[in-house]
């Protein structure tokens, strides 16, 4: 009985394990590297591997594969998809194919889909022809559909098979199915068409002569390979199944989607949103990735921001004569704009969350605005009062400046909340990922609004005498 | 065999289901409401329920509970925790207790932990005493530990039980365990102390006289109730188990943590980060929540932002005489600040992601800076060149303005990337959630840096003649 509590913490005084590991890789001592990795607590493994540069990481796997292929494959599945894909790309094609054949079918597909498409085609060709055909079929489905998420590690039997034959099969192939969906057995006819699902627990209490067809549950949900991950999520929300069979239009059983796979892909999607919110375009960035890829991805987000930002500040250009008369406006312009942007972003976050949960969709603009208006107005007045007080305390009542700033903030924050709550719905309606565009576009629009309102109200109200 | 593909789409011409549902609730027609909800496709259920106001939602459950308690409990588990908790709070205590007893143990705990603590104590008291004791024990563990995540729906047998008795048990209690962890059976001694795990599949091939103790897997991982969700994640990454037993210090078997529960809680955490990134303090906000709660939470984030924003713009105050001489600076100040903020945010996103994955931790500041410096410098020069060109094209070379803006952007963006990549590591070291503080604090710091650099370089270089 092993417990993760027994794993010794890494003592600060000792030489850090990645240094030792790095030395083993340099000297080509695979056995020592393997032994070291086996001793690292699971929670520290990724940290240790993360210290190795690209080439060292590839070299490590080249040492591990000939010694313990199973371990090398398990370790590979610990890595984030982008790192694993990068590593496989750099291995010799034959070695990569050998390694990949030991990886679970759903991870195989994830890694290959993340790889450079030319390299992935080469690696697939180098694999066994039946496995290659399976993988090609899986890769033909989009990542976030039942076809892309399904695994082939399922237990399939002919509908005519008897319980005693199934038990015999288990006795012979004892302990080979740790990675399989074993809660259910799947019954198919002579043309591999799906017949039904047998809960493996019912085998225990069934008579040995019963057939799979007799034991099959009649009302088990099935999905077609093009069902989306959102539909799968709501399916799993509604039923207690741990997996559902994926069946082609002609009735062929293709595989099964596990409940956990659906939740993992939803989690990945949330992470991707977070990255896009932070301004990383083109997927996940890890710092071990090549510098030019990272530079390019970040630049692709910043370059359009120049244009957007210029559009916003061009509002200021129009009012430069006003600023010449009251340079104090240059101080409060960015402040009003920042606070309006923050208020708008709050509304964006709530709209994205409610869209993700399925509580609202693109049709609900007016309802959402109804729910936001009084909140926006109340918070607008509250913050505006504080702002006006700050202006009054630091500048006095210079020609009505507190009034100008307070009124401009109230109005522009209400507009910002309206834009922030509404834009994600509009994006959703247009089929664009709301997390992708709302934030930079929103900032531009809220900046423009607050610049315009502060400066036009200043032009109208401010007493320059 | 039912397929979610068969579910009819909601036709746009028909009266929307929530209107009909709302009418049934008003007239108190529970049967019609139940029938309607049974016909709504699972993927639309949450959307339909989301259209009902707080009180309508509570009224709906009061109608459903006496007619079909099981359905009411299943439907409750579809709702986000905050909505479900709110609903339970509003039900009469006895009704709430009846409803909750039908909910899975892990969801029970989630809902009760989200509720007002006084109401939740009342509801627990109204439940059966043994169930209440279980729940109190579960609630005593933090949400994101093995104790908080474990379920009690596991199959536990005495280590001396024979296979034939277990099979008899299954025969008698046929189909009662859909929500149970059934892949494993757990063997305990006469004092409920954990003895071992029996894979249910081995029952099929075992002899009827074998005991649970004989079939138990010897090297199965166990965890103590205070193990964190991160440790659980890396444990599940390393082994193929679908669940691990949770064992107290005295050896008592408390329950089991399912793999899926760990991934669901990690997903929730990502969502919470996204919300905090968007400026919602105090947890998830849904628009069906009371207005005053929503207003208060958003305000709590905006109020400190006034202070932070004021600190940033006070840099401008110092340089007001410079702006008086060149009001054009008021135009480019917000632009440089926005772009630096965006560059800094990119680095924040990558640091948070790498921290979450366990690729880096608080100790790695210098390494991360090493990985960011050249990227920051390159992108800084690239964006600065475009900015300088924009200045030159719109304003000409007025006294060296393009040089001032370009140089100021380059320097302040490098500082912004340094702050953005470093702050999350610092927060991590101090034990603060990085997503909580990095964004507003970062904006203040990057604003200050860029305001200072633009204005001080302008004072030094700009030729005002």
Question: Could you characterize what this model shows?
Answer:
Two copies of one chain form a homodimer. With 465 residues, the first copy, chain A, is mainly alpha-helical. Chain A is 66% helix and 6% strand. Chain A has helices at residues 17-27, 30-39, 42-50, 54-67, 69-76, 81-90, 93-101, 105-114, 117-126, 129-139, 146-149, 163-172, 200-205, 212-215, 229-238, 259-277, 291-318, 320-325, 328-357, 365-395, 401-430, 434-461; strands at 154-158, 181-188, 194-199, 243-247, 253-258. In chain A, helix 12 links the parallel strand 1 (154-158) and strand 2. The longest helix of chain A has 31 residues, at 365-395. The first copy, chain A, is elongated and about 100 Å long.
Structure in a nutshell:
The structure is a homodimer of 465-residue chains. Chain A folds into 3 domains: 130 residues, MgtE N-terminal domain-like (MgtE N-terminal fold), CATH 1.25.60.10; 122 residues, Roll (CBS-domain); 171 residues, Orthogonal Bundle (Tetracycline Repressor, domain 2).
Whole-number tally of structural domains of chain A:
3
Global geometry of chain A: elongated
User: Main beta sheet of chain A: strand number and arrangement?
Assistant: 3 strands, mixed
Number of strands of chain A: 5
Summarize the largest interface: chains and residue counts: A-B, 131 and 131 residues
The N- to C-terminal Cα distance of chain A equals 85 Å
Write down the CATH class of the largest domain in chain A.
Answer: Mainly Alpha
State Rg of chain A.
30 Å
> In percent, how helical is the residue content of chain A?
55-70%
In terms of structural class, how would the helical and strand content of chain A be classed? Answer: mainly alpha
Strand order of the largest sheet of chain A: 1-2-3
Q: Per CATH, which architecture of the largest domain in chain A?
A: Orthogonal Bundle
Provide the β-strand percentage band of chain A: 5-15%
> What are the secondary-structure elements of chain A, in order, as H or E?
HHHHHHHHHHHEHEEHHHEEHHHHHHH
Unreliable sequence segments of chain A: 1-12
